[in-house]
Amino acid sequence: MSILPSILHEPIEALCEQGDKLFEQGNYGAALQKYQEAETLLPSDRERWEATTWVMAALGDARFFLGDIEGAAEAFATAQRCPNGLGNAFIHLRLGQCELELMRPERALEQLAEAYRQGGIEIFEDEEDKYLDFLKTRVDLPEFSGQA
């Protein structure tokens, strides 16, 4: 995994922290602007850097909450191609949600099933019921007894 030089890593991290605070306040538009600023600082070979994974996931999350589902899906798909993106339960969850909203059930199933495999039922706890319900109608999920 490649870590950016501190001259890039530190300002990207600072912008993302600012974006995270705005996001937590429900100010998704302002958060998105901070994440986009961070994205502009990524090197051109951005998919080799761990920072790209979390910048793109943050961008995708903000876009998801702003209703830009296509943009969110693109951001999460990029995050999956970066270090530690594939197999990240949250990234699979949000991408699966995007795919379902975009009426692509086969892709949604693949992503939501992987989110479940990686994060268990807990990954769905704070999400709308429709995503787990969709998964349950297509996959035989083991009974949840406090473990995934």
Automatic annotation (TrEMBL):
This is Tol-pal system YbgF family protein. The lineage of its organism: Bacteria, Pseudomonadati, Pseudomonadota, Betaproteobacteria, Neisseriales. PROSITE patterns: TPR. The keyword DNA repair does not apply. TPR repeats lie at residues 12-45. Keywords: TPR repeat. InterPro entries: TPR-like_helical_dom_sf, TPR_rpt.
